[in-house]
Amino acid sequence: VKTASYSDLLFLFEEAAYIFEMQKSRDLVDVALGKIEMLQYKKEFIDQYLENVDRLSTMKLDLVIELAGSEVNYIVQTLTNQLTQQTRVQGLPISVNCRYLL
Length: 102
Hints:
This protein has helices at residues 6-23, 27-38, 42-49, 58-68, 73-89, 96-101. By secondary structure, it is an all-alpha fold. Helix 1 (6-23) runs antiparallel to helix 2 and helix 3 (42-49) runs parallel beside helix 5.
């Protein structure tokens, strides 16, 4: 991956998460997170990846937190937008995964 493409980075991230979950090897996780950072695509990736936060495992949420690093505002902004949509517009309670991230 040499240019920022969400679909390519998503594939890399998902494969890294799968290998980490199955084999407890962080090598590909470090490569994936490093690639997203190197391409300066962290905010865009987090925004898109958390669109369906309810479908993500807590292990993947932990990787997103790791990716955000000190820039937790990327996660907070995305969650704030989602929570506003869920609670004000749809009248739904806060999801379990949103609570986990908060």
